[in-house]
Specification:
This protein has 157 residues and is of the alpha+beta class. It has one domain: Glutaredoxin (3-Layer(aba) Sandwich). 35% of the residues lie in helices and 25% in strands. It has helices at residues 24-27, 44-62, 75-85, 100-105, 142-156; strands spanning 13-16, 21-23, 32-37, 65-71, 90-93, 108-109, 114-115, 118-122, 128-133.
């Protein structure tokens, strides 16, 4: 079962597509974080979402939210994917132990070997404020991201 709003988000340390270690606790010292789980690199819906996220991440950043993408693919695969799509976002590899971070968020699909299409908006206190999900094969709606960020921004005022 997926973690829910009001729950403390699991912390994690993963390598990005450039081999850099990214610690969620460090990210949260600066701003809120939108953690986006994508099932598999290079798949059509995931590629569509990734490009849209990369185009949209400046909007999130201006609202004080950092966007990170997590996939069970290897860092090398994520590097090839980010190069192929000209992506500037951090793509984090949950490759080994396979899907451990997705499991900690309750979104790993054991029978498939990858994460469900879910996103978690986490405030600077490490609390999940919103969960945005869609069915496999269906992209998440960016209007849902925008509404979640607007709610978080209005609560911070």
């Amino acid at each position: 079962m997926s973690i829910t709003p009001g729950t403390r988000a699991p912390s994690f340390v993963l390598r990005n597509q450039h081999g850099q270690s990214i610690d969620s606790r460090e990210l949260l010292t600066r701003r809120a974080v939108l953690v986006v789980f994508l099932p598999l690199a290079f798949s059509p819906v995931c590629s569509q979402e990734l490009v849209q996220l990369d185009d949209w991440h400046d909007v999130a950043a201006s609202a004080g939210v950092e966007v990170v993408v997590i996939s069970v693919d290897s860092a090398a695969t994520l590097r090839a994917w980010s190069d192929a799509e000209s992506i500037s976002l951090s793509l984090l590899s949950d490759f080994w132990p396979h899907g451990a971070v997705a499991q900690s968020f309750g979104v790993f699909l054991d029978e498939k070997g990858f994460a469900r299409r879910s996103s978690f908006l986490i405030d600077i206190n490490g609390i999940v404020r919103d969960v945005i999900s869609s069915q496999l094969g269906e992209p998440r709606q960016f209007a849902d991201y925008q509404r979640a960020i607007e709610r978080l921004s209005s609560e911070r005022r």
